[in-house]
Amino acid sequence: MLLRSIRDDRRPGQGDGTTIDILFKPVDALKVETDFHGLVIHRATTAEEAQIKASLAEDLKSASARVFLLDSRDTTGYVVSAAVGWREGILGPTRRSFFNNAGPWAPHWPTQPLGGVNPGFNEATAEDLINAISSPTTARRDRFRTVHVVMTRMDMRDGPEFTGAGVFLTPQDAEDAREQLAPRFTDCWIETLPVAL
Q1: Number of domains observed in the structure of the chain
Q2: Is residue 145 domain-shared with residue 82, that is, in the same domain?
Q3: Taking a C-beta distance cutoff of 8 angstroms, is the pair 150, 166 a contact?
Q4: pTM, 2 dp
Q5: CB 66: neighbour CB atoms within 10 A?
Q6: Which element (helix H / strand E) includes 96?
Q7: Are residues 79 and 20 in the same domain?
Q8: Residue 121 falls within a domain, yes or no?
Q9: Which top-rank group of organisms is this from (predicted)?
Q10: Whole domain around residue 173: which residue ranges?
Q11: Does residue 108 lie in a domain region?
Q12: Residues near 143 by Cβ (< 8 Å), separated by ≥ 6?
């Protein structure tokens, strides 16, 4: 489960664009509010953990899972999970989260905040893409626009592996993605290619 802070420009000190991602993994059970106003996370005491685990179904009572309490204003919720971690920083415009990054074994640009099956909730339709590049589908394809493809190379025992990691509509987004990928690969660069419209 991924929790994310939401920037609020109306509040003092919130204008710097800082994002906080909190990841619980894997989650066996939870009881949380839909949003938090200030959040303190702490490990449940032995008595609190026993009480919460006693209320769960038998298949959710993993011995290795811990109970984390989430205090926010006047409410306390919980998450039963093996671990919790957090990261804070400036989340670039193309980065989905601090916990899902492309790497040598998954070189394609992440399209969702966490790895796993993508249900397609954030997938753009063909119409969205066409509108994004301002061209009707029935037009003759005698014009073009450029897209920016972030490419990666990883040197392996059997030779280098080249992968197109992601395609971006602006050079700024491509550069943001390249900067995030570059430390994980032997080489990382941007190819500018035409798209027939």
Answers
A1: 2
A2: no
A3: yes
A4: 0.66
A5: 16
A6: none
A7: yes
A8: no
A9: Bacteria
A10: 126-196
A11: no
A12: 135, 196, 197
